[in-house]
Design a protein that fits this description.
4 strands; 37% helix; single chain
């Protein structure tokens, strides 16, 4: 299993737009082949910082999602709302 963590910082005026976007795409991401769920986390000290935490069968499943039209559309809309450069990590449980 691969755990994907993405840290995103949004402009304050775009936080609500992002939350609405995530709500509309969450089930589509979770239903993507190889995905075992996705959660949205929010930093307790900075309400403009969010993390997505998703679990994938393997790196191939994650990469298939990242090459999909769903990802392309979602990421294009999300990037427009950023206040800072995103960071991402792919991890495995040891």
């Amino acid at each position: 299993m691969v755990n994907r963590i993405v840290k995103m910082t949004f402009k304050e005026e775009n936080v609500e737009k992002f939350q609405e976007l995530f709500t509309t795409v969450k089930s589509h991401i979770e239903n993507f082949d190889g995905c075992h769920g996705v959660k949205l986390l929010r930093d307790i000290n900075n309400p403009c910082v969010f993390f997505t935490y998703s679990i994938w069968d393997n790196e191939n499943a994650l990469n298939a999602y990242r090459k999909s039209a769903l990802f392309d559309d979602t990421w294009t809309k999300t990037k427009a709302l950023f206040g800072n450069k995103p960071e991402a990590w792919s991890t495995v449980v040891q």
